[in-house]
Design goal:
Layout: H1 2-119
Length: 120
Amino acid sequence: MIEEGVFILEEQDTIEELIELDSRAFEINSKRKKQLIDITSQYKKEEENIIAEYKKQIEDETREVAQRILQEGQQEIEQMRIKNREALEGMELDFEKSSKEITEEIMRKIFQSNNTYNHG
């Protein structure tokens, strides 16, 4: 009988230990699930931050490249204006020179014609 009582007590102790282990396992499992949820949430936040940072970098770099291209374009336009102005000035000087030469030639011919007419 005593052996039966000891067996029942041992059985009860074993059942209590199993219940306690099951309870601890449930708590550990619950903690792990909560940690997983927290880690997943943290990961998503970090991922969003990384994406936002890359997006900002891309926008900044795009803005810088666009600004640089615009500046280069404006410099090229200014260089073209200078070259065009220089070309026009050169053409004006050539025209003035040609006009002066033509006028001098006409005047010379008129004077030659007058000299020939007056002497002849």
